[in-house]
Structure to design on (155 residues):
C-alpha cells in the first residue's frame, strides 16, 4: 500500500505500494473476522499468582515454572525478561501474598473468602482459588533486590 508504520504513526513510503489499498483493507477485514477469541488459560500447575505477578525491577510478568528433583516437583516464578533473571520459589511468594492479605481480611469480605479457600486448597485444587484471587487482587509486584512484595487490590 506504499506506507510505513513507525512508533504508531503511518508515513508514506519511498516506494509505491504493491497492493491496492482496497485489496489490503479487504484482506485485513477477512483476517479480523476469522480471529478466534483466546481462551483464558487455566492456572499452570497450580500457580496461584499466574497472570498477576510482576517483577518490580523491569515491570515484566513473572511466569510459573517448575523443576523436578528426586521425583518431587518444585514450583517457582521467573521473570519473563531474559536480562533480569529474578526467580523465587512459588510457595514463598504465594505464602507472602496470603499473609499480607490476611491483614486486610477484616475490612474486605472477599479477602476473607479468599483466605478460607486458600486453607481448603489441598482438597479442591487451585483453579477456583486462582479465580477468586483474580477478583480481589489486581497485581502483585516482587522486588528481587529488597525482597519486598507489593499488592494492589481491585477497587
Amino acid at each position: 500500500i506504499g506506507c510505513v508504520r513507525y512508533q504508531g504513526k503511518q508515513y508514506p513510503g519511498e516506494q509505491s505500494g504493491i497492493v491496492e489499498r482496497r485489496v489490503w483493507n479487504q484482506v485485513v477485514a477477512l483476517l479480523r473476522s476469522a480471529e478466534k477469541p483466546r481462551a483464558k488459560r487455566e492456572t499452570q500447575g497450580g500457580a496461584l499468582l499466574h497472570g498477576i505477578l510482576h517483577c518490580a525491577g523491569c515491570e515484566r510478568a513473572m511466569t510459573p515454572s517448575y523443576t523436578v528433583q528426586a521425583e518431587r516437583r518444585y514450583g517457582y516464578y521467573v521473570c519473563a525478561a531474559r536480562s533480569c533473571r529474578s526467580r523465587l520459589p512459588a510457595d514463598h511468594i504465594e505464602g507472602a501474598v496470603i499473609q499480607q492479605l490476611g491483614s486486610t481480611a477484616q475490612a474486605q469480605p472477599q479477602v476473607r473468602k479468599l483466605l478460607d479457600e486458600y486453607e481448603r486448597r489441598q482438597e479442591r485444587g487451585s483453579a477456583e482459588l486462582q479465580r477468586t484471587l483474580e477478583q480481589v487482587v489486581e497485581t502483585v509486584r516482587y522486588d528481587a533486590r529488597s525482597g519486598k512484595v507489593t499488592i494492589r487490590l481491585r477497587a
In short: The first strand starts at residue 3 and ends at 6. The longest helix spans residues 21-34.
